Amino acid sequence: MPYLIVHEDKCIGCRTCEMVCSLSHEGVVNPDLSRIHVLGYKGEKFPIMCLQCEDAPCELVCPMEAIHMQGGIRIVDDEKCIRCKMCTLVCPIGGVLYDYINHQMIRCDLCGGDPQCVKYCPMNVIELVPDDAVPEARKRGVRILYGEAD
Amino acid sequence: MFGYAGKILFVDLSTRLIKTIPTDKYAADFLGGRGIATKIAYDLIPPDADALDPENVLVMMTGPLTGVAPSSSRIDIVSLSPVTNLLGGSSAGGDFGAALKFAGYDGIVITGRSKEPTCIRIIDDEVTFHDAEACWEYDVYDTVDCVKKLGREDVQVACIGKAGANLVKTAGISFSKRNLAARGGLGAVMGSKNLKAIAVAGTKGVKVRDTKRLMEVNFEIQKRIRESPAFKKYENWHANIALSLLKARRPYFGDYEEDYWEEAEEAVRNAKRFFEEMATLRPNSCFSCPLRCWAWVEYKDEEAPMVACQGTFPAILFILKIKDPELAWKVYLRLQREGMDIMGTAAVIAYASRLGLVKLGTEDILWLIDEIVNREGPGNVLAEGVKRASEHFGVPAVYVKGGMESWSSDVRPFRGVALAGAVSESGSISRAIHGFPASSYYTKPEKAKKVAREIVGDESAAEPTNYKGKAKLVAYFENEHIIADSLGVCDTPMLSIPLELWAEAFTAATGIEMSPEKLHFYAEKIRTLERMFNVRRGVNREEDTLSPRLFESVIRSGPWKGVKLDREKFERMKDEYYKLRGWDERGIPTEETLRKYELEW
Ligand code: SF4
Ligand code: SF4
């Protein structure tokens, strides 16, 4: 199953990803309804979205057992979900969101396999990789944080 | 409405009354952004008002593409300019325009004057006033931080620094800590209204008509921007822009001196080394733009976001003759923190050096900036801008229309730039000449000639000193700028992408059919209305001019040795330009022209 990984060092904070994510999912441009969010600190930018954890806190905390993995993507059963928003509290990275217009929980769904943020990001910051490539990507992340390994 | 947010917010500071009106009222006639802003300014500002009177109106308008298409982050600001006392206009990128639309407003119209210093906070439908007494003299950085503490960290902020509060005529309006609506002294208008800041955050978003089509056009536009040669160049633009201006023979030195500044190359090399080796840069972009024209710059223990594409750093090097990049960086920080128009203030300081008040290239510049910001000593006169200062001191200065400080290009050899500086209603050349073939004649001659051939039918029109064809080029590029400013698109990327695609993006976003021809028609109409605004204030042919010094001096050395601006040929360019615009020989729009664009006095 492929995953999204983020090369945040290349991000220029243009928020094109937020624009196309909300456009493609909701038919409006509204960064607050985008499933990807670009956080910024001075010049540094960090795009974040649901990373489909293995032992997902959101799934574990859900009192209604509404969240489950389906085809490699975590989905919420709208019928079961009572909108208590516990999942937004426990997600360590802010990957799950509440759509306050349509009143439902939303998160990255990999756009059914063709993620629009990957397609539109001008700097190729977001990449869709097969799961066996993830460890390599994480190591890369560590190298960025702590400098090149010898 | 699709594409548009649908409402315009009116805030009267005298009475604190707030209302909204539907954007529909103006959109079909004036498109958006600069077009609608000009219309509102025309309707609301009395022809005899003074720029710093409460009767002046400050209009900030986004365009229908702001926030929904690539490189469309712009917001246009129109008001009576305290520099020229004529129509003033400037625009800014960043994230403010998009945030305003997401909050549900296409624009904000500020009227009246607040009794006490105030700040307006807009969170969707909630518009509140906050006391700004304590932060009135804060610089831009502290103001932004202070406003963010009001409750939401993610607000976008438009504000003035101390210069604006002190009604300095080269004060701009800062958008967060980096983008500046620099020209025309609009920061002083905000200051005169006792308005320190406007903060906005929105959660509503913008509806579009045809999602699929808009996404396709956006993809195509973005792809072309990424494939254009400029895209690669922007990676190192901070280090290279001064060099490329020099190669294009575009800078001027000091107070428009006749002699070439021999140390310019050295200054440019030092600046290049500063950005490549001494400072660290983190490239960034405005909302929805792939270009990365600004970077977070860190050097020693100071840091600032710096926009490269505007050429502000080169202006500091060239106009202030600074060879030491550390000093240039300090000057940059000071001017940016105070929210000042860097070009304009640099021109004022260069003029002061002619008076012997300051020695260019030295730390004294920092002292003089403070004097201007605080209106102390000679700074009090210099704060009035170059034209009024020259009237006070009796030493002739250089300026363009209405007394506006010139742009960082010598206008004497660049005939088109000279014409634009004289006919442009705001005196702001940057609203007219971007994309001009003469600007790239020495760096990309083939391309420059091609553009001239396409527009004028004669490639010799690209040659800077040639008077021929310049009127048509000015009219054409003014139109393109008006289209960019009215749609909400940044002019740098806009000009490199065929207009058809922007028209298509407009159609997809709004559901209203659009074509390049129609866009040009809108531009001509808006241009005519801008003219009417100034004609109503007494402008005619006489005011469409430059300061006399520019016609009287001959360049003595450097690449433009021997060049001078010929007044007679200049007047002939004006005739040609008026004809193209449908104005009579006094520069007044004819009855026929008004009928054509359905405009009335
Ligand atoms: S929403 Fe957060 S906790 Fe849940 S799977 Fe995604 S990243 Fe993990
Ligand atoms: S589109 Fe790419 S570069 Fe732009 S903010 Fe998103 S991740 Fe960063």
TrEMBL record, chain B:
SUPFAM superfamilies named among the record's database cross-references: Aldehyde ferredoxin oxidoreductase, C-terminal domains, Aldehyde ferredoxin oxidoreductase, N-terminal domain
Annotated Aldehyde ferredoxin oxidoreductase N-terminal domain residues: 4-204
GO MF assignments: 4 iron, 4 sulfur cluster binding; electron transfer activity; metal ion binding; oxidoreductase activity, acting on the aldehyde or oxo group of donors, iron-sulfur protein as acceptor
Keywords: 4Fe-4S, Iron, Iron-sulfur, Metal-binding, Oxidoreductase, Tungsten
InterPro entries xrefs: Ald_Fedxn_OxRdtase_dom2, Ald_Fedxn_OxRdtase_dom3, Ald_Fedxn_OxRdtase_N, Ald_Fedxn_OxRdtase_N_sf, OxRdtase_Ald_Fedxn_C, Tungsten_al_ferr_oxy-like_C, W-dependent_AOR
Cited Pfam families: AFOR_C, AFOR_N
Cofactors named for this entry: tungstopterin; [4Fe-4S] cluster
Domain of life: Archaea
Family, as annotated: Belongs to the AOR/FOR family.
Protein's name in the database: Aldehyde ferredoxin oxidoreductase N-terminal domain-containing protein
Organism in which the protein naturally occurs: Thermococcus peptonophilus
